[in-house]
Design a protein that fits this description.
Length: 202
Amino acid sequence: MEDTNYVKQLNEPARRRYREKITAHIGYDPYQLKKNDFSRDLSDLPAVEAMDITSYLVLHTAYYTASQMKAYKSLEAFNYFVCGWVNDLATKEALNKCRLVFARVNHSQRSGETPLKTWIVAKEDGEVVTAHCNCMAGLSESCSHVGAVLFAIEAGVKMRETASCTTEKCKWLMPSHVKKIPAAPVAMIDFSSAKSKKQKTG
Ligand SMILES: [Zn+2]
């Protein structure tokens, strides 16, 4: 596989790790795909559930602790998702019957900046295999953006399972759906953790 422009600008350890990930799980570099290469059909999403998100972010990457995941509604990643900052969620086949899910995630308050490009790979049953985000210099496999994409996939899977899924309804509904969730202005969102709330109530 030839190095894409994205790979070329990474430093050597990051480049090696990135090549490893895409060679083992995908078979192409997601950053070189065009919009039309992806499916936006809900039925193509891997069946990611809350358990899969926890086991990836807690057990696999140690990005969150188990108790942070229990208070998932206070997580930055969850707020990114609720605020509709995850968009263009799209999927494509990867190796070993896995699915790639690719998304653009806005920088939180800095909305004028180019959105981040975040991707995850999961088995069809929802087990998250690997992930990547370009928010840091190349090595990010777990960050709030990866978490936000996982929450968005979980929501899409729930929609698929609850909606009577005609072909038309199964088209990717997420961006407009997310906007319908009443999103408070950023200043009003309570970013304090559930832990501190518990302490307040005794
Ligand atoms: Zn990120």
